[in-house]
Specification:
Elements lengths: L1 H10 L4 E4 L7 E9 L3 E10 L2 E11 L3 E10 L2 E12 L4 E10 L2 E2 L1 E9 L4 E4 L2 E4 L2 E2 L4 H10 L10 E11 L2 E10 L3 E10 L1
Antiparallel strand pairs: 1-2, 2-3, 3-4, 4-5, 5-6, 6-7, 7-8, 7-9, 9-10, 9-11, 11-12, 13-14, 14-15
């Protein structure tokens, strides 16, 4: 299936192909959209004149994890309440983000939950965003926490921590944190150490 989808996308003349049952480009339909360098994703949901509108969902295979977005759309972009679920194919972790989006970017409080199954723990990495960029800076608080437990943490010069969570269980200490680099890209990292 992946080979056939990739072949279909490479043969597309435009950036997307939209199907609605009556051919009008309105109502509930499905689409394939080019993404990045040779990538693509599928959309299923509402359309009005070929523009994604109403409730809809994106499905994307990202190699070692699947990406699913469900939520409100207008103007061909996520606008309103939405949820992203990233599920790792090896079953090790699931990341869930939910909140308000404006033109595809998080705005306001974003509920960010990391279910890490080898830790058997749910980390709350929620943060506040403005135009897609996390606004909190908990870097010093996180570094103080790491120093208290003698945990060596190396951050790149342009990284700041926007949220973190920890657990203690049976002589083991685990923590997960959410960071941004150069004020733009968000990432997550976590560790477990024996105490």
């Amino acid at each position: 299936l992946t080979y056939e989808a990739a072949a279909y996308v490479s043969a597309m003349t435009g950036e997307s192909a939209v199907y609605t049952p009556d051919g009008s480009g309105s109502g509930v339909g499905a689409g394939v959209y080019k993404f990045g360098e040779g990538g693509y994703y599928f959309y299923y949901g509402g359309y009005a004149g070929g523009v994604r509108t109403g409730e809809g969902a994106i499905f994307m295979d990202c190699g070692d994890y699947s990406y699913v977005f469900t939520g409100a759309w207008s103007g061909d972009a996520p606008n309103g309440i939405g949820t992203v679920v990233k599920t790792y194919l090896d079953g090790s972790k699931v990341y869930t983000e939910s909140g308000m989006l404006v033109n595809g970017l998080w705005n306001g409080r974003v509920n960010y939950i990391a279910d890490i199954y080898d830790h058997n723990y749910r980390y709350d990495l929620s943060f506040t965003a403005d135009n897609g960029v996390p606004v909190e800076d908990r870097t010093q608080e996180f570094l103080d926490f790491a120093a208290e437990y003698d945990i060596d943490v190396s951050l790149a010069e342009n990284q700041k921590i926007v949220a973190y969570d920890e657990y203690h269980s049976e002589g083991r200490h685990g923590y997960w944190y959410l960071y941004i680099s150069a004020g733009v890209t968000a990432g997550v990292a976590g560790f477990g150490v024996n105490l």
